[in-house]
Amino acid sequence: MILALSVILCFGSLIALLIWKLLSGAFWWMALLWGIGGFVVVLASFCIVIILTLIFGGKALAKHYNPKSPFRHWLIREIAHFCNFWLGVRYHVEGLERIPKDHPFVIYTNHQGFLDMFIFFVVLKDYPHASLYKDSHDRNPLIGGMAKALGGMGLDRENDFKAAETIIKVIREVRSGVNFMIYPEGTRSRGPELLPFRAGSFKVAQKAKANLIILALDGSYKVARRMPWISRVYVKIVDCLSPEYINSLKTHELSDLVHQRIEAEIEEARKKYRFLKVPKRFLKKNIKK
What we know:
The chain is α/β, with parallel strands linked by helices. Helices cover 52% and strands 14% of the residues.
């Protein structure tokens, strides 16, 4: 709804001002400048409203813990859809049918770019979820409040005791029916490579006796360098592992398995889809390493 309204008003103001100026006898280039100016002003107004909603709305909603609230997930989905569209993000999605709807799950995925969470809020719109993220996000005024409002929890990696407490809380939430997304790399790769996984993060799915969803993501690292030009992002649900199966493996074995499955899926997708071709500048960086 927010995206549709922004598109209508932005292009509507451009066309209206363009026609008005042309009818007023202005040169075509002057009329065009007026139209573009109207477009920019309307879009900037939407952006300001979105930012204020994330900051103050997120802070207000975070005061009342309700991770299953349909309104909260609808709101962040609308905001994410708006941001992704105007920043040029488009999606290629496969395998959503593998996600179970009758049992809680934990998604494990790689992390490439700053918009990954927003991409998942749109792509996984029928599967509301909270996130486990590094605790520094809690101090970020733009995303901290909304992340908490959706049931997310910050992990303090510098304090083992606090980290263990957070993991226990997440396990309890998953058992109560709250789906979670976890980034086992622990940070963004900011490139096409897959970083090593932190095996301890897989205890959540094992202890909660939840389904483990393996999700492969590629292309989102390009968005920051290409926006607002179009960037296509690849998202695939690789597999859904049962609680019985994941608990038959040791934590490090499960971590290695998921890492291998995601890495293999991304390599296969890059051979199949031209839009996932790795830019030369990233290949040069990998050679230097």
